Amino acid sequence: MSQTKGQSSIQFAEAPYIIESSSIVGQKEGEGPLGKLFDSVEQDPMLQKKTWEEAESELQRKAVQKAIDKSNLTQQDLRYLFAGDLLGQSIASSFGLMQFQIPLFGLYGACSTAGESLCVAAMTVAAGYADNAVAVTSSHFASAEKQFRYPLEYANQRPLSANWTVTGSGAFILGTKRSKARITGITPGKIVDYGIKDSFNMGAAMAPAACDTIYQNFMDFNRSDKDYDKIITGDLGLIGSKILIDLLKEKGFDISQIHMDCGVEIYDGDNQDTHAGGSGCGCSAVTLSAYILPKIHKGEWKKILFLPTGALLSTVSFNEGQSVPGIAHGVVIEHC
Amino acid sequence: MSQTKGQSSIQFAEAPYIIESSSIVGQKEGEGPLGKLFDSVEQDPMLQKKTWEEAESELQRKAVQKAIDKSNLTQQDLRYLFAGDLLGQSIASSFGLMQFQIPLFGLYGACSTAGESLCVAAMTVAAGYADNAVAVTSSHFASAEKQFRYPLEYANQRPLSANWTVTGSGAFILGTKRSKARITGITPGKIVDYGIKDSFNMGAAMAPAACDTIYQNFMDFNRSDKDYDKIITGDLGLIGSKILIDLLKEKGFDISQIHMDCGVEIYDGDNQDTHAGGSGCGCSAVTLSAYILPKIHKGEWKKILFLPTGALLSTVSFNEGQSVPGIAHGVVIEHC
């Protein structure tokens, strides 16, 4: 049976539930405005491991284990893992999830992977391919700086437009068992490239992609800003959020009253020196788990559009003078 | 309706068809045993671009365009793209597929991505989420050497156990319209790590994962080596293929008479100096399109298990002393 909706979206005939979730973060995130909401705040940025990459793997392992522990499920109940991170060849996921011995679909959409993994896990459960599946993503400030910018030891200065990569991992168990939140539809995004070449201004690079996916979601589902209690982007930060609101105004929609950005929420920009805000696959994932889902469970927010955003660059593409294209995957989450 | 099969597999209630496919390769692949079968042999390794990475992006763009041209479909008929490559942050896919303006799911499973992309595209079409979806993967000898080993200018010597990364891209349009080949089931793989640390012997690192997925496929579908005309691995090469056959014998199955490896088929090892054989996301994809699918269309092979294999390493994980874990995703393709 066709479950397509409009040009790009999917409306699930049997919407999968978000059965349980978890959030593991680092010290800085623990000191931020959402600090008390996370499942676990790791005081050691190395997580007792030898390298930053192993530390990030450990974040993913802990997030999945925590989600299992919080649910009434066992490891054997989880049929597939959908996972990704920002590191080259996704090694945080591979080395972090290996021990679970669950079939793995590796995903890459930069910071939008948090949305992509929820999309594919939801598609899998809704189709009857699994009773339960896990979506998990991570990022780590130090492994990301090492990968994309400079080693921490270099102590470089950061422009005010720069984002701060969140140290954290969020895991979500999707399944057919009833809970208080379900994914009723998705709008997978396409790549949007406005030709921005400044990798220290990723909010500006990703805002057009967020605009494109939100607009597509409105068209496909015949909705507008009036139909959502919140539209929550991943990590546009202060600058990207302003651009997004302006771009959508040009298309006739004013989301300024209902828009929220995980990258803005997770830190106290005035006191934590995080400049434009948080970013990374972990940013939107831990914010969804710790802050957004509880509000949906309570019915405080009945219907939201959750929209992690990604900047599709690598150091190689950047050094070769390529632009920074963006992508955003939309996930409609409803109270039930 | 549940479509799960056994512990890890999916049996599609409405199996999607492989409507069309394409194969674009480089000069060396064009000079190999399958040379005359490919859709296009590019004589310029740069594909008229400025960098190796842009050249690989161009391979993907050409592969998708060729698959569209060969089908009776238009770009607008293709609802989703499922794509991946070997480069950090999957830039070959992002920059190669941007212009199609089709929603993109980025995937990463090293060289197993060719199988992973077919799995997720098949899951999507079979569930009624799309009438048509595209799976596409690529690799390029020069971008891979630069990424994983040494710049070509360094002219390093290669051990005999090393694989040769295939320059090529294969694209597959899956859909609901009847054709002569369909994907009837899949067995997504889990990560298997035997602790091998030699990145110049990836066949040995991936063989245990291939063994695990084949065995799981046999158990889940209650099949054996007798049920397949061919079991075709992605890029184990000569050394990995031998290990796979030995490992499966230990589990009671002899696949020696029906096993084939795309990495072994694509080059003439005696005359092309390719050592253990071909590898890369492009290797199994172009071999499937140019060599395997025509035999399925003719009914020469009625049922095969196609099993691209991936080595989940990065230069960072390798330099930090980590092992090279493997993964293999199984795709059952049947004549119809």
Automatic annotation (TrEMBL), chains A, B:
Pfam family membership, one: SpoVAD
Molecular function via GO: acyltransferase activity
Highest taxon, organism lineage: Bacteria
Name of protein: Stage V sporulation protein AD
Gene expressing this chain: spoVAD
